[in-house]
Specification:
Oligomer: single chain
Number of strands: 11
Largest sheet: 5 strands, antiparallel
Strand content: 35-45%
Radius of gyration: 19 Å
Order of helices and strands: HHEEEEEEEEEEE
Amino acid sequence: MRRFVIASLALIACGGAAPAPGSNSAESNSDEARIAKALAGFTPGKPVNCIQQFRPTYSTEAIGDSILYRFNNRLIYRNKTSGQCDNGHRIDALVLRNFGPQLCRGQIIQTVDTLSGFETGSCVLGDFTPYTKAK
């Protein structure tokens, strides 16, 4: 009986650890499609290390491992992060503890579950690639 329990636990542990085949590629394909749609008609520029955080208005949108900073109808910065800021289908908030007027490469962003208040992940900002739209 003891061997059966140990074997069952090992099987459950191995079965739960493996992701469903193709699930990550399907999610990344849909994320890339959403990013392509958001950046349609925009031309990428030369990446920069920092952007000004305190502008009159801007919005952010996290899609997969990218964060889009939309400053106006003609300027969007894309930041491809590394780490676990991809919140999947949960409703998480991006939290950045910043002590200056800029967002820069290498800063850490944490994700927090909006219902429980618990931290659910973190990631590091990469380069900011500007996307501009012609007049």
